[in-house]
Each structure stands twice: as structure tokens, then as C-alpha cells.
Amino acid sequence: MGSATGTGGVYLGLCFMDEQALIARTNNSIDNGRKYFMRYIPGVPVPQNNGLLYLVATPLGNLADLSQRAVDVLRSVAVIAAEDTRHSRPLLLHYGIDTPLIAYHEHNENAVAPQLLARLQQGESVALISDAGTPLISDPGFPLVRLARAAGIQVTPIPGPCALIAALSASGLPCDHFYFGGFLPRKSEARRSALKALDERSETLVFYESSHRVLDCLQDMAAVLPAERPLCIAREISKHYETIVTTTVAQACALVEQDANMQKGEFVLVVQGQRETVMEDLSAEQRRVLNILLAGGCTVKSAAAMAAEITGAPRKACYQAALQAGQDLQG
Ligand code: SAM
Asked: Model confidence over 78-125: pLDDT tens digits?
């Protein structure tokens, strides 16, 4: 039956046990040292004979980035639903995986998802992969996952590469809060309004971009966002020409304009959020004055107003810095 066998007995067990055994097993089972809690929800019928739907992350470019667990799952399922079967074949061949493939992409997913659901309900396990990275992240898969979950099928991620996380983690920009915008609109006017709408967000902003549009996109960023806002270009992650440069909005544009190689490949653009920039825009002396006022009991609003008056710093910057200082104190 298509359940994975190479990664621990937990997968086999889940499909065939009676309800009491399932409760006991799901509350106690260990897979690679990780405990699985609460797969049984009281009152919700437990499907006994369903297969599992695995969402398997695949490499962004470096074949060695496929995890051992991913290999085990891809070998053991009844079918692999792949965004582009021709694209995925070399990867599967490399690992000696000869599981049957079925095409599952944005143009056929509404038709194929119910077919895959039927196979899952008949007890076959299915693995979903995209061309690169984590399925569903700017990639096909959402209709299938929604159907599967609604039908009580167990959906199990096999975590691994994801371009946005790889880029963000290496960018040197704050990673504690971020906004993922996927692909910005293709047309410049729409892209600029999307960027304008995000301009005041405090989180780090992360976007996917293609080689055809990266320069246009950076030019629009330069037109809409403050020139000094830190920006990271992460290109060809995990590949031979991997380039990760953190610069500013203004300089990023010039950098890509002047170097044709910087317009080739796949890109993630990471832009620092406004709050962080504003915090950095205050000088040490301006922050010192602000902190004295806050420590002296002034409200955020009056401390910001007085600090702006005393030091000449922009009032908005003082206000945001004061707000942040207040949050830091509470946190
Ligand atoms: N699901 C994938 C993931 O988990 O990252 C993303 C798929 S999306 C269709 C493809 C976009 O991801 C590319 O246009 C690019 O923006 C980004 N990307 C994928 N591979 C990359 C790489 N090696 N380096 C930089 N960006 C990459």
C-alpha cells in the first residue's frame, strides 16, 4: 500500500490501526526523535484506509540538497505528482527513484486534484513535488491540499529547501518578522502601487523575481522606496553562480544595470522594513535623548515630540523609535 516504509513505522501504522490503537500510537510514536501529538481529534471520524499526502521539498539547484527522508518517501509512494515531469526526472534518476509520475501543474491542478484524492482514499500514498523548493510556495498544490484536508487525509510536509527562507536567512536583514509578497505584478504601474502599499510596513519584505523583470523591478523599487533602504539580492541560491549581495535600494539598481550577469538566473529580493530603517536613521545622540524622556515617564507621543524638538530629528522617526523602545521594554 503506498505508505512510506523507509522512515519509521509510524507511517505504516497510521493507515491500518483501529481507533484506540491510533490514539495510543499517535500520542506516543516517535519518528526520528520527534513526537507526533494529537492526530486523533475526538468526535472526528478517523479514516482507516487512506493513503498519506506528502509535500516534498526538492532542491533549488543543488541536487545534494534533497533530504534522506525525501528520498525515502519519494521511493515508497504509489505516485509522485510533479509540476513538470521532464524537469523532475533527472533529480529522481540521480537518486534511483523510479516511482510513477503524474503531471500536476497550475493548468491542470483543478482537474487532477480530485483524481489524486480518489487514489488517496483508495489507500495509495501520493507525494507532491514542484520544480524546485517547497510545493505551494508560489507553486501548485493548494487545491489538492485543501481537498485532502477536507476529506480527512493526513497531509505531511517533508521540509527542505525554500528560496525565500534561504535568502532571508542569509540577507543580514531582520528575520524576526517578515512579509512574503511572492511575485510582484508584472506591469510597472501595478508593481509600483503594490510597493507603495508596502512602503510603511515594518517587517522585512521578501519577493520572488525572474531574470526578465529583475532590473525593471529594482528600478520601480528605486522610484518608490527610500534610496537608502537596505536591500539584498539573492541570486542562484545553491548553484554555481550563487550571489548574495546586501546593498541599498539605490545601489542595487545600479549594480544590476552595470553587470549583465546580475540579470541572469533566479532571484529573491529582500528589502528591509521601514521600522528598522527609521530606527537606524536616528543618530546615537537622538536616541539617547529619546530614551531619557521615555525613562523619565513621558508617553510615547510626548517623548517623540520633545525629542524631535530638541534634536531636530524627524518627528515620525522619533515616534516609531519610541514605539519600538516601548515594545522592547514590554517584550
Ligand atoms: N516553491 C519555490 C520555493 O520554495 O522557493 C519557489 C517557486 S517560484 C515558482 C520560483 C521562484 O523562486 C524563482 O522565480 C525565484 O524568484 C525563486 N527561486 C527559486 N530558486 C531559486 C534560486 N536557486 N535562487 C534564487 N531564487 C530562487
From this structure: 999 999 999 999 999 999 999 999 999 999 999 999 999 999 999 999
Residue nearest to atom 8 of ligand 1 (CA): 138
- Predicted local distance difference test score (pLDDT) of residue 301: 93
In the reported structure, the alpha carbon of residue 62 is separated from the centroid of ligand 1 by a whole-number distance in angstroms of 13
Q: Quick one: cell of 31?
A: 519518528
Sign of the Cα torsion 291, 296, 299, 303 reads negative
Distance 121 CA to ligand 1 centre (A): 32
Class of domain 164-274: alpha beta
User: Cβ < 6 Å from ligand 1: which residues?
Assistant: 60-61, 130, 132-134, 137-139, 162-164, 208-210, 234-239, 266-268
Q: What are phi and psi of 250, to 5 degrees?
A: -65, -45
Residue having the nearest C-alpha atom to atom 26 of ligand 1? 267
pLDDT beyond 70 at 19: no
Which residue has 524546485 as its cell numbers?
132
Fold of 10-161: Cobalt-precorrin-4 Transmethylase; domain 1 (3.40.1010)
Residue located via cell numbers 510597472? 188
> Closest Cα to residue 125, out of 145, 159, 153?
153
CA 135 to ligand 1: nearest atom: 1
**Whose C-alpha lies nearest to ligand 1, atom 20?**
60
Residue 263 has pLDDT above 50, yes or no: yes
Give the whole-number percent of the chain exceeding pLDDT 90.
76
List helix spans (H) across 36-125.
68-76, 85-94, 109-121
SS3 assignment, position 196: helix
Q: For residue 324, what is the DSSP state?
A: H
